[in-house]
Amino acid sequence: MARTLDPAAHAVRRDAFVDAALRLIQAKGYDNLSIADVIRQVGASKGAFFHYFGSKAELLAAVVDRMVEVGISRVEPVAADPDLGALAKLEGVFSGIAQWKREQPEFQPAAVAELMRVWYSDENATVVARLRAATRMRLTPLLAGILRQGAAEGAFSVASPEGTASVITSVMLGLQDEIIPLFLGRLDGTVSFETVQSTIGTYIEAFERILGTSRLEWPIADEATLRYWFDPTAPLKGQAA
């Protein structure tokens, strides 16, 4: 008699391999990761690993899918809310992603520096490239829906919601690439807080020009948020030093 598969147990066991791989990638880089490392971390057999994944590349795909799914699932309800206007939805997408990162232990300012150095090292170039492609695939259609609504409401001046969504996604990924050296530069004292503000402000201006509006609130650019990430020990403007 064929053994009956328990889907829930199967998913939990598969997730254990994905969890272990993510921890190891963050610690040592994907290029330095071996299947044997993951098996040891999980405490499983080689046969168990290959029951779920055909190769290291398949495991990487699962890790990337997990990361993108967690982030996108945080903002999908905002984008689908029928009671929200397009402006509020777009603001919600930006603030939702930022807030999700802020809630993750590994993304706290005290811990994120080493994570960034490993994650964006040469050893993880494959992971970052896959993650960018997967993010683009999931985020672009979500933004396109918001921009179509915004065009109909007169909130955005865009000729092609789909094309503009692709451009917005590219600018968002570009901003992410800018943030990493800014963050690390603040730590080693080579980048001023004013440079951080100016750089983020330039990207905000680009978003507004692309969308044809200046009515959006940008939580990623407010001083409290920037101080949290880039100057956590400094007092906010108006407070005593």
Looking at this protein, list some descriptive labels.
mainly alpha; globular
Radius of gyration: 20 Å
User: Helical stretch count?
Assistant: 10
Q: State the major sheet.
A: none
Helix content range: over 70%
Give the overall shape, derived from the CA principal axes: globular
Order of secondary-structure elements = HHHHHHHHHH
CA-to-CA gap between the ends? Answer: 74 Å
Account of the 3D structure:
With 241 residues, this protein is mainly alpha-helical. 73% of the residues lie in helices and 0% in strands. It has 10 helices and no strands. The protein has helices spanning 7-28, 35-42, 46-52, 56-80, 86-103, 109-119, 125-153, 161-188, 193-211, 223-230. Helix 4 packs across helix 5 and helix 4 (56-80) runs parallel beside helix 7. The longest helix has 29 residues, at 125-153.
Quick summary of this structure?
The protein is mainly α and 241 residues long. It has 10 helices and no strands.
Topology:
Blueprint: H1 7-28, H2 35-42, H3 46-52, H4 56-80, H5 86-103, H6 109-119, H7 125-153, H8 161-188, H9 193-211, H10 223-230
